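SECTION: protein entry
WANTED: fold as tokens:
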Amino acid sequence: MILPVITLVLIMLLLGGVMWVGQAYRMLRMVRFNLMDSWTELKAALNDRREMIPYIVAAMPVNISPILDVLGNACDLAANVEGVPECSRAEARLSAALNKLFMQLDTEAPIETLEILSPLRDRLKEQEMRVMLLKEAYNRQADLFNALQLGGAARVLVSLGLVLPVEKF
């Protein structure tokens, strides 16, 4: 008589554990989907920023060609990387090359060139602000995803290798 009761209790505990882990997996999957959506938006904004560079380069005087080569290489690298850490480093190089280009332009370029570049620089600034906001949103999603992996049933999924932490941008 006691054996069926023990069996029933064990089955209920097993089902409860499976539901507990299943709920954690479902939550992690939902947050992972939001994280991938944020990553897609960020990559699109970064791509939009890279698409502005040829217009900026076309308005440059010829005597700045060494910096344009560096900018072109940084742009190519940023367009052809995979993964969050690699993309982050490549975009940092591209931003540094753009800043160096604009610093040199501000000191050496004639006023006509600066006037031509002014609307492009304004658009680029707006796009960089959008990238910054999307980067912050992605990083918040990554923090949330990684924090959820530290709790209860999610640790089971992490220990089994079913869920892995993600890198921030």
Remarks:
- DSSP finds five helices and no strands in the chain.
- The mean pLDDT is 88.
- The two ends are 60 Å apart (CA to CA).
